[in-house]
Amino acid sequence: MNVFIVHAHPEPQSFNGALTRHAQKVLTAQGHQVVVSDLHAMGWDPVSDRRNFVTRKDPTFFKQQQEELHAGAHDGFAPEIKAELDKLLRCDVLIFQFPIWWFSLPAILKGWVDRVFAMGTIYGGGRWFDTGVLRGKRAMLSLTTGGGEPQFSEDGLFGSLEQLLLPIHHGIFRFTGLDVLPPFVAWSVAHVGEEARARYLEAYGQRLVSLETTELLRFPSFSEFEPKTLTRKRA
């Protein structure tokens, strides 16, 4: 398989860095091809604006989705966007590697999504969820937390991690057609010892060798949801 890792951590010696290096080692040993976009090392600009494009649909008023549609039809994406789109469309598995910051993605990674998941190329025109452009590919979050697992439980201080990740799992991955794997979570990595970190790396390796067989997270399908919505509207 072709595995594409989008890595978002500013410190190469961080545990996020260790997880990405371990993923490269394990996946390559399994015969997979691995491509990594290390966003900080690349100097990735997370701000989405006209710099995304070398074409212009409307030079007087900027509407990103309109410009994305136009760029998709006229080979108009800036080189850095085009390169990431090529990696995304070529991969079989997409992995986001990041630390939870303020209960969400780091800004640099959210900015990567804002710029790369372009309308007309990655979604739109009725192509979403079960009919999404990226259907048939798998996606997984690999993340680290500051707090421990009990704090991210349903009754914990921070609330359920599952709910915190829903906008990513459902609103980014599943929306574009990706099949979503359960996340890999390294809990409270700044507060555990080397033995615990070694166990996390071992467990992550086990997850990576089963990317093709791990049971997917389940979400309502668009075909299941639409009739219920229409029924409620008629009622």
Automatic annotation (TrEMBL):
The keyword Aminoacyl-tRNA synthetase does not apply. It comes from the Bacteria. Residues 1-208 form the Flavodoxin-like fold domain. GO terms for molecular function: NAD(P)H dehydrogenase (quinone) activity. InterPro entries: Flavodoxin_fold (IPR003680), Flavoprotein-like_sf (IPR029039), NAD(P)H_dehydrogenase_qn (IPR051545). GO terms for cellular component: cytosol. Keywords: Oxidoreductase. The keyword Cell division does not apply. PANTHER family: NAD P H OXIDOREDUCTASE-RELATED (PTHR10204), NAD(P)H DEHYDROGENASE [QUINONE] 1 ISOFORM 1 (PTHR10204:SF34). Belongs to the NAD(P)H dehydrogenase (quinone) family. This is NAD(P)H oxidoreductase YRKL. It comes from Cystobacter fuscus.
